[in-house]
Fold this sequence. Notes:
By secondary structure, the protein is mainly α. The chain has helices at about 35-55, 65-90, 90-95, 110-130, 135-160, 190-210, 215-235, 250-275, and strands spanning about 10-15, 20, 30-35, 175, 175, 180, 245, 245-250.
Amino acid sequence: MRPTETPAPGFWVHDLDPVAFRFPEGWPLAGVHWYGLAYAAAFLLAGWMMARWRRAGLAPLKDAAEDSALMSALMVGVVLGGRVGHVVLYARDEFLADPAMLFRVWQGGMAFHGGLIGAALGALWFARSRKVPFLAVGDLVCALAPAGLLLGRLANFVNAELIGRPTDLPWAVVFPLPGGLWSPPCHPSQLYEAALEGAVLLAWMLARYPRRLAPGRLSGEFLLGYAAFRSLAETVRLPEDGYILGLTAGQFWCLPMALLGAGLLLRARAAAAHPSSR
C-alpha cells in the first residue's frame, strides 16, 4: 500500500472524528472517544438482554445480583484480555517502545481472541463461584457477544484502524494515515466485519438462544461462525502482524477457535442423543 499526500479523487474520504465530544482545557481527559462509548453501549446492551432473558427463565441466573456479578466479570475479562491480547499478538514492538500504550485503551487496540479468553475466564469464575454449569454460562455469553462485536467494529471504522486492502470498488474508502498522509482507496473491512461478525451472527444467536439446546451447542456455533466470518474478512483486510504458515495472524488464531467450536458441537450432539447422561 502506497500512501499519498492527497486523497484519491472519486472515493469517499474518511473524515470522522474519533472523539465524540471534548472537555474544556485543563480537564484530566481531552474528551470521550467513540471507541469507549461503543464498549460502554455494548456492555449496557448485554446487561439489558441478560436481565430480560433471566426474567423469562432462559438464562442460568437467579437474580439481578447475579446479573451484575457476571457482567462485572465479563467487563474485566474482556478489557484486560483484549488489551493484553492486542499487545501479545499484534503490537509487541509498539509495547516495547512505549509500555504505557497498554493503558491507553481509548486509542483503540483490542484483540478479539484475547478478549474471548478473558471473557471465558470471567464466565468460568462466575460459574464456579455460583455453582452454575459453565457451558450454560458460556452459551449465554456467546449469545450476547455479537452485539459488542457489531459496535466495536463500527468504532474501528470511526478510528480509521484495521483498514482493508486497496481496491477500486465504488464503495472504497480513503483513510487518513500517520504523518498527514492518505491511504489509496481501500476496502472498508471494518464495516464488512460489523455486518458479518456483528449483525449476521447476532441475528443467528438471537434466533437460537431461547431454544432449549444442549449445553455448549450455541457456544460451538458462535466460535465456528466467528472463525469463518473473520477468516473471510481477513482476505480483504491488511494483515496486522504478517503471516503465520501462509495465513494472516487473524486467520491463524481462528483455527483453534474453529477446532474448539467443532468439539463443542460434537459434544452437544452426543449429549442430545443420550440425554440421560447429562
